[in-house]
UniProtKB/TrEMBL annotation:
Active site: 106 (proton acceptor)
The protein's role, per its UniProt record: Catalyzes the reversible conversion of ribose-5-phosphate to ribulose 5-phosphate.
Name under which the protein is recorded: Ribose-5-phosphate isomerase A
Database matches in Pfam families: Rib_5-P_isom_A (PF06026)
Gene3D superfamilies found in the cross-reference section: 3.30.70.260, 3.40.50.1360
Taxonomic source organism: Lacticaseibacillus thailandensis DSM 22698 = JCM 13996
């Protein structure tokens, strides 16, 4: 079974957690693409009244195109449930996100949400975070200074570039600096360090956030409860 089939399986299962009347946070990425399709099918078949808050223009456009009502994050007083993908999840349910350069908006939506579910294929489950380069979003002013500072700390920063070699920019017009840190033994300490760096708008460590993980495996879906 290929990776996309496993992503779709997890997305379809997670769409079952959506309830009538909910305000839903919708993440970004290829797994979320399947999720939005699955939610739209339920909205149509069951006449669900839900509204979505998106984390990227990609998701926003897809959801609107499929008939899901979308509202801005500043137009809601709460979000009931956010469903998003992830790049890595460790055994303590800590995660790395930002492979799609949307981690700042994703974290904002996740932190506004009463519950968070991540949907992944089984390859995203790891013992220790860090094989996936850790994304950070850096403001353009002084970005080279930020890179030097992180390099001096041994964090092996690398600017993310597109196929044409241009710097990738985020929704906010900032750059993405991926950190090749290797195994992250103490994610909270690293998050604390990155939080304190002027010039870094946000990083992709999502700690103590997720409540449930839905995993697509060749033997079916698994729902893992994070105990928070
Ligand atoms: O964090 C993200 C985007 O910023 C995505 O959720 C993450 O990269 C997973 O993507 P995919 O579902 O395509 O594997």
């Amino acid at each position: 079974m290929d990776q996309n089939a496993l992503k779709k399986m997890a997305a379809d299962r997670a769409a079952e957690f959506v309830e009538d009347g909910m305000t839903l946070g919708l993440g970004t990425g290829s797994t979320v693409h399947y999720l939005v399709e699955a939610i739209a099918r339920r909205v149509q078949a069951e006449h669900l009244h839900i509204q979505g808050v998106s984390t990227s223009s990609r998701t926003e456009d897809q959801a609107r195109g499929l008939g899901i009502t979308m509202v801005g994050i500043d137009d809601v007083d709460h979000i009931d449930l956010t469903i998003d993908g992830a790049d890595e999840i460790d055994q303590h349910f800590q995660g790395i996100k930002g492979g799609g350069a949307a981690h700042t908006l994703e974290k904002m939506v996740a932190l506004t949400s009463a519950q968070n579910i991540w949907i992944v294929d089984q390859s995203k489950l790891v013992d220790t975070l860090g094989a996936f380069p850790l994304p950070t979003e850096v403001i353009p002013f002084g970005h080279t200074q930020v890179e030097r500072r992180l390099a001096a700390e041994g964090l092996n920063p690398e600017w993310r570039r597109d196929d044409q070699g241009q710097l990738v920019t985020t929704h906010n017009g900032n750059y993405v600096l991926d950190l090749h840190v290797g195994k992250i033994a103490h994610p909270h300490l690293l998050a604390q360090f990155l939080d304190a760096q002027t010039g870094i708008l946000e990083h992709g460590l999502f700690l103590d956030i997720v409540n449930k993980v839905v995993v697509g495996t060749p033997d079916g879906t698994q729902v893992l409860n994070a105990g928070r």
